[in-house]
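Incident review: delayed structure delivery

Summary: a single-chain prediction request sat in the queue longer than the usual turnaround. Root cause was a stuck worker, restarted by the on-call engineer. No data loss occurred. The affected request and its eventual output are reproduced below so the record is complete for anyone auditing the incident later.

Affected input:
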Amino acid sequence: MSIKAIIAKASDGTLEEKEVIAFSEASRISLDEFAHEFSRDMAQNYWDGLYDYSFCDGAMNWLYGFLTNPAYLDSNDNTISDFPLEIYLAFDSGEYHHSGDDDSVDPVRNYTDPAIEKVLSANNS
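Output delivered after worker restart:
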């Protein structure tokens, strides 16, 4: 299974933990490296316009569940890495109007897009 297939299954909520573990083992990467690759793919393809917000938000919600799962935490010193967490939070911030926002505010444009741009800029320099 490819990372693209994994991401698609994550977005629609059908990805299972055992599939990620098998993918990581076959790719000879840690679960944390998987989380980074997954998050980087989500952020870059969203930024490039290849994935839409809804697709990414669904996939990142799945990943967050995985990041809080004992399989991941046990393999990563009971710690969630900053990069995948930042990407998750960027998409999560587009799910709702924030305090002080009026109805005309688009949370994706106001919160998600700048956060993705910032994270990608920081990790590409």
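Verification: The helical segments are 3-11, 17-27, 31-47, 53-67, 70-75, 82-92, 107-124.
Action items: add queue-age alerting; document worker restart procedure.
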